[in-house]
Write a structure and sequence with these properties.
- By secondary structure, the protein is an alpha/beta fold.
- It folds into 2 domains: 141 residues, 3-Layer(aba) Sandwich (Rossmann fold), CATH 3.40.50.300; 119 residues.
- It is built from 12 helices and 5 strands.
- It has a 5-stranded parallel beta sheet with strand order 2-3-4-1-5, with helices on both faces.
- The chain starts with a helix and ends with a helix.
Length: 275
């Protein structure tokens, strides 16, 4: 929560967030905690249950998904100014349950949201949301108390930076590292996606909160990658993650991904050498 607290303190809040971990209850707890801190920063009442400018949107108990009717009611409410005159906060709980129709309807409202609107999506998998929604949100990935720290981010960053830099042998030397990720493959690819998202933040926004100096070094090593190339790598991680739901073979998926990012790196170097 340190990053979020810094944003509150510096009054640099995003208009939309995605809170993500494998524990739905934990996600909602963090969203409630964050909402209280935001209201407090405005000098407002933090009792959420009595706050007309705070709402949790969730699926009806009789429904499998968050209905389009619920989404439309939310959108209509977003047009009303906050009674406190400062801010309204909406938490869309378990947002992976949004229907495609509801997601598309909500997308335009996010794009056109007034500056007093703050939306928090909670989900166990940010890839379950529309890419166009994700691109308009700041993604905060939590590790709940019930989750283990599966992925060695430093080692992962090192290996990815070497492969992209043209050292394909690094993949074969570290095959065991990838093989161990088979039991938590979705989390593994979320970390890979986070690596590339951090690269974009470093390259274009210069806003990155990474205390690990080695990870920062590995990111800077491939900082010259163009945006289109980084975006293709992110889309590749999304494609593979979706494939896991259709029982795509993990070992083949890893090899496919490794050769993909290796070729991206080689193509960039080849283009530079021709200039």
């Amino acid at each position: 929560m340190e990053l979020l607290e810094n944003q509150i303190e510096n009054k640099r809040l995003s208009s939309a967030y995605i809170f993500e971990s494998k524990n739905s209850t934990y996600n909602l707890d963090r969203a409630l905690e964050f909402s209280k801190k935001v209201f407090e920063s405005y000098g407002l009442d933090t009792r959420l249950s009595e706050n007309p400018d705070f709402e949790i949107i969730k699926k009806d108990e009789k429904e499998k998904n968050i209905s389009i009717k619920t989404v439309r009611l939310l959108i209509n409410d977003m047009y009303l100014r906050p009674s406190n005159g400062k801010i309204k906060i909406y938490v869309i709980d378990e947002s992976e349950r949004l229907s495609l129709e509801g997601s598309n309807a909500l997308l335009k409202s996010i794009e056109d949201a007034k500056d007093y609107i703050l939306i928090i999506f909670t989900t166990n998998n940010s890839f379950s949301l529309l890419k166009t929604i994700r691109s308009r949100c700041q993604i905060i990935s939590f590790k709940s108390e019930k989750e283990n720290e599966f992925v060695d981010r430093e080692e992962l960053s090192y290996i990815l930076s070497e492969i992209i830099s043209g050292n394909l042998s690094f993949y074969y030397k570290n095959k065991d590292f990838f093989s161990k990720a088979k039991d938590y493959k979705e989390e593994f690819f979320i970390e890979i996606s986070n690596f590339f998202n951090n690269l974009i933040k470093l390259k274009y926004y210069r806003e990155i909160s990474i205390e690990n100096k080695k990870i920062l070094f590995y990111l800077k090593k491939i900082e010259k990658l163009p945006f289109d190339s980084i975006d293709r790598m992110i889309r590749k991680t999304e494609e593979i993650t979706k494939g896991f739901k259709n029982n795509v073979n993990f070992d083949l998926a890893i090899e496919n991904f490794v050769f993909f990012i290796y070729r991206e790196g080689i193509n960039v170097e080849s283009s530079r050498s021709k200039l």
